[in-house]
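Good day; I would like, with your permission, to put a structural problem before you. I would ask you to consider whether the tokens describe a fold that such a sequence might reasonably adopt. The full record is reproduced below for your convenience:
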Amino acid sequence: MGNSEIMIHVRFSPGGTACEVSARPATLSAQDWFNRLSKEAANVYRALSGGRGLFQVSAVQLQSLQTGMS
């Protein structure tokens, strides 16, 4: 995987909770995955229009986040 960048897309419900987040571990809800990403990778988050957002992380960082070892 190396230095490749992964884009994690987020979609929010009208109430502001995360309803879809890509690369989500099966053991986490969309909101829980968004919370983990926000805590560990807030510096690489971009808010987009239309209730969407984007995290851009390295493949190594994504693997660490998915296993909860960040």
Observations:
- The beta strands are 5-12, 18-21, 45-48, 52-58.
- Residues 5-67 form one domain.
- Residues 30-41 form the longest helix (12 residues).
